[in-house]
Design a protein that fits this description.
Length: about 300
C-alpha cells in the first residue's frame, strides 16, 4: 500500500510539474549518455583488447595492465610531473581570483571597474591553440618579444620553452593570466550576496577598509571558497591535456610529460587501448580519493562541503 501510494504521488507530481521535468530531461540525458554510460567501458582496463572481438569479447587479464604501468620506469616521473604541475597551479592560481574580486569590490569608480573586469575577463575566451601560439611568439629564442627586450637590456637570449625547469612556470602563469578574471566573477557574485547591514555595522564600529575585508568580506565568501577549493583539488590529476601537449617539445619533455599526454600517446598513437584505459582509470581513482578527502576535511574544519 505504501509503495502504491508513492507511485500515485509521483504520477500526480509529474502531471502537475511536467514542464519542469521536461526542462531537466535534456541535461539528464546528456549526463547519462556521455558521462555515465561510457563508464561501463572502463572494463577495458582489465582486458586485452582486440578490435575484432570488441570490448566485452576480449579476454580478461585482471590487473595486468595496472602492473605494467606501476612497473614502468616512467611511472614515477609521470606522477611527479602531474602532481607538481597541478599543485603549483592550485597554490599559485587559487588565491589570485579571490584577491582580484576583493580589490574590484572596493573600487568605487564604476567605469574603471568595468574596464578592469573587461581586460581580465577577455583572455578567457582565447582558445588554447591561440594561447599557445601567443606564448611561443612571445618566448621565441631569437625574435620573441621577451628575448628582444632582454637583449636591449644587455642580457643574453634564453630558450624558455626549451628549458625543462621553466615549463611549469610558463604553463601556470599563462593559465592564471587567462582564467583569473573569469574565476573572479564567481567571488564577485558571492560578495554581492553579503548582507549590506554587516557593512553598515562595520562602518558604525569604525572598522577600516582592511578590517572590513577581513571580518566581513572573507567570512561572507568562505563557503564559496571552500566549494571551489574542493572542486579544484578533486581535479588535481586531471590537469589540462591540450595546453601541455601543445607546449611540449623534445627539450622540455622531462618535466612536461604528464599522465594525460602519456595516455594520449599510448592509447591513440600506439593503439594500446587497454593499457591507456588502465592508466586513465588510475588517474580518475586518485582524483576521486582526493575529492572525498578534501570534502571531509572541509566539512570538519570549515563547516562547508559539497555533501
Amino acid at each position: 500500500m505504501e509503495a502504491a501510494g508513492k507511485r500515485l504521488s509521483a504520477r500526480k507530481s509529474f502531471a502537475r510539474h511536467w514542464q519542469l521535468y521536461l526542462i531537466v530531461a535534456p541535461p539528464l540525458l546528456f549526463f547519462i549518455i556521455f558521462k555515465y554510460y561510457p563508464m561501463l567501458n572502463a572494463v577495458l582496463a582489465f582486458k586485452d583488447y582486440y578490435v575484432t572481438k570488441g570490448i566485452w569479447g576480449s579476454p580478461w587479464v585482471g590487473f595486468h595492465n595496472f602492473r605494467l604501468f606501476f612497473e614502468n620506469p616512467i611511472f614515477g616521473s609521470l606522477v611527479k610531473n602531474t602532481l607538481m604541475l597541478s599543485f603549483y597551479l592550485l597554490l599559485a592560481g587559487f588565491p589570485i581570483p579571490i584577491l582580484l574580486a576583493l580589490m574590484l569590490n572596493e573600487v568605487r569608480a564604476q567605469k574603471f571597474k568595468r574596464f578592469v573586469q573587461l581586460v581580465t575577463f577577455a583572455p578567457y575566451f582565447i582558445s588554447t591553440v591561440v594561447m599557445v601560439s601567443i606564448i611561443m611568439l612571445f618566448l621565441a629564442p631569437r625574435l620573441g618579444f621577451v628575448n628582444v627586450l632582454m637583449n636591449h637590456l644587455g642580457m643574453e637570449s634564453v630558450n624558455f620553452l626549451g628549458s625543462p625547469g621553466m615549463f611549469s612556470s610558463i604553463y601556470v602563469w599563462s593559465d592564471i593570466w587567462q582564467t583569473a578574471g573569469y574565476s573572479a566573477v564567481i567571488y564577485l557574485a558571492a560578495l554581492s550576496g553579503i548582507d549590506p547591514t554587516l557593512y553598515e555595522a562595520a562602518r558604525v564600529d569604525g572598522a577600516s577598509r582592511y578590517q572590513k575585508i577581513w571580518n566581513v568580506d572573507l567570512p561572507g565568501i568562505l563557503p564559496t571558497i571552500s566549494i571551489i577549493l574542493i572542486l579544484n583539488v578533486g581535479n588535481v590529476m586531471a590537469i589540462g591535456f591540450e595546453k601541455v601537449y601543445l607546449l611540449q617539445n623534445k627539450l622540455n619533455i622531462a618535466n612536461s610529460e604528464i599522465i594525460a599526454t602519456y595516455v594520449y600517446k599510448i592509447g591513440l598513437l600506439n593503439a594500446n587501448y587497454s593499457f591507456a584505459t588502465a592508466v586513465g582509470l588510475f588517474n580518475s581513482v586518485i582524483n576521486l580519493v582526493l575529492l572525498f578527502t578534501v570534502n571531509a576535511l572541509a566539512r570538519r574544519f570549515l563547516k562547508s562541503s559539497i555533501w
